[in-house]
Amino acid sequence: MPKTAALPLQEVLATAVSALGGSERSGQVTMADAVAKAMTDKQHLLVQAGTGTGKSLAYLVPSLLHDERVVVATATLALQHQLVERDLPRLIEAVKDVPGVDTSYAVLKGRSNYACLHRCREGVPDDQGALVELPEGSMGKKILELRAWAEEEAGGGGSGERDSAPRHTDKDWRQVSVSHRDCLGAAKCPFGQECFAELAKEKAHRSHLVITNHSLLAIDAIEGVPMIPDYDVVVIDEAHELTARVTQAATDELWAADVERAARRSQRHVEGPQADDLADAAGALRDAMSGAKPGRFETVPEDLSDALVLVRDAARACLSAYPRSDGDGDADAGRTQARGSVQDVFVNAERMAAGSDADVLWLSEGTDRIPPRLCVAPLQVWGQMRDKLLTDKTVVMTSATLMLGGDFSALATSVGLKPGERVLDGATASGEVAALPWVGIDVGSPFDYGQQAILYVARHLPPPGRDGLVKAQLDEICELVDAAEGRTLGLFSSRRAAEAAAEHVRERLPHLTTLAQGDAQLPELAKQFVSDPHTCLFGTLSLWQGLDVPGETCQLVLIDRIPFPRPDDPLMSARQKAADKAGGNGFMQVAATHAALLLAQGAGRLIRTTSDRGVVAVLDPRLATARYGSFLKASLPPMWTTSDPAVVRKALSRLAQG
Predict the structure, then answer these.
(1) Domain assignments of the chain as residue spans, ordered by start
(2) What CATH topology corresponds to 252-374?
(3) pLDDT tens, residue by residue, 519-539
(4) CA distance 129 to 334
(5) Can you give the pTM of this predicted structure?
(6) What is the pLDDT of residues 597-624, one digit of tens each?
(7) What is the 3-state secondary structure (H, E, C) of 277-288?
């Protein structure tokens, strides 16, 4: 039976906000009402909610009050952790006495995020299927520590999630976890009843609210692999990341070494010549790849196409040669792992050999440490999202950055919603009945950007070139950092640019502490940055999101150039060309939209609370001089804008003096 809450939505929200020590925010109330209406009317919703709105509560409260199961999908582990460790427990404590509210929830992640008890207890098979002895030294000790932790989790009813494990590296974790391909399956595994991943799935089936991530949502809804129990509504937080995460989930890679490894693993389990044939096909692929030019293939070279067909057919034959399971519960981990590796090779080679116009195929640049690899990704994902997610479920998307160029159209189109289907004042924008009606609202921000922030565009600087930062830009950086007395987060287009800027600032301003990405792990760098205001932290795109440093620590955000995708980016260039071919403006639809999103995310690092003050300095004059500059600026918060360096330096000096 549908459940009914004794209190209306706004009263439950007010109860929760009060219990959590907050105060009512009009944007939060507006958003909560819109989310509840979308769930009831089964109408898609895009809601832009600025930093500080309290959007987590604004969708969690309606989700708890909804009659059916709701899935919440986040892009980053940081937000997932915040929801599960802070927001949800406090919210549930606040509303636990409200009649009719089902407060059950579960966290669901990919299988490799959980420790595997079979691997912990039985060990890791090598390429031939034999169990590998523990390595000596620090890695062996770390694996023993992780195994002991997993046993404690199993004995104490813990989740076995990687996030709660002792400190470790990716390499360490692979020794105690498995992918879905390597998993024996609960029915065959002798430890299936205790399996952390299976227990998490069972808990999700019993829960009203399921917290997961964009990638798992994509695998479940779009790839068609059942991972999440049936649900009515999905709330997608950090929705500006959705298309990138869906694309990432649908991207496959193939290395010649993958094929060779699959062949070696198969030799112990396949009696015929099929494993040797697969090894021969690996050699043909390696030769073809070594003769190919890195980059996107508009037409695949004949020898590479032939090699992919050879690998595909050899992998298919090898799979067929594996002995069939007798179904008696036999759990041969080595055979399961070996067959899974061949299955991966077959699926990827088959997709690459198909040469579908819906896919983009390219060869990556190799390095001294990493050999080249073949990559294939979907040309677009909006079609799959429209057909396989938006058509079946009610979807609420939210982020602080959904309106690009001052409008929802760019993002709506990228996820599969048509601008003409938008509902405006009870009618769709086109005036016709929409196939997938959607509502877009901006609930604003509690921040007064016009008073709290300055957007400085260094119009006098030369346009950025391909050779990195020039002297004029480096001098500008030093003058701004000096005026701010540190307190600077520098966001650069490349690691080389970040390191060059850091080196220059260290030489010119040795009295300040200047940190560069790579000097230490990001959490340690962030900790140092927060602890001393007279510090600068310079890094690349990975710093643009998820770094939350409110207060006087960050009063200057430096952005060296408009973050357009690289001209040789295979996927972006293919999408831009496809948009042009379809009669659109590929540059604006792909490159400018990509840049607007990253620029808005970078600028969003500055103002995190109502008391923050500071400057966003863009050292790229094109933001002021190019025709597309108005589109990019319309994607940013409404900051007071200037191109006068003297005005900005004085403002930063005043802020530094407190």
Answers:
(1) 9-104+207-244+382-442, 114-193, 252-374, 449-656
(2) de novo design (two linked rop proteins) (1.20.1440)
(3) 887 778 888 998 999 999 999
(4) 4
(5) 0.90
(6) 999 999 999 998 899 999 999 999 999 9
(7) HHHHHHHHHHHH
